[in-house]
Amino acid sequence: MVLEVPEGKYQEEVIAASFQKPVLVDLWAKWCGPCRLMVPLMDRIETEIGAENLKVVKVNTEVHTFTVADYKVEGLPRMLIIKDGTPIASFEGAMPYPQLLSFVQDNVPKPEEVVKVQN
Question: In this predicted model, what pLDDT tens digit does every residue of 104-117 receive, in sequence order?
Fold first, then answer.
C-alpha cells in the first residue's frame, strides 16, 4: 500500500529517501476527482516496479501546502519522480496505467543498469 506522507515528514519520507532510490510522488487533494482515479494505479505501480527499486508516496497538497509553490503545481494530480533530492521528471493530470508505467520506466533505472553503473 502506498504511503501517505504524514505532516512534518516530507523531508524524511521523500527528499532523504530519494538518495537511496527514486521516489514517485503523487501530489493530490481530497477534492480532486482525477486524483482518486490514480490511487489503484499507484498501488499497482508500486507492486509491479518493486519497493526495492522505487518508493511510491502520496502527498496531500492541503497538508503539505509548500509543495504547490515549490513544484509550481498548476493542476492535480501531479506526479514527480525525485532522485537525490531533485525532481527529475513530472507529469500533470490523470493518466491510464500504461502511460504511468512508461513514465516510470523511462525515468527510473532498471536494477541491472544500477549494477552496471556501480561496477
Answer: 999 997 766 544 44
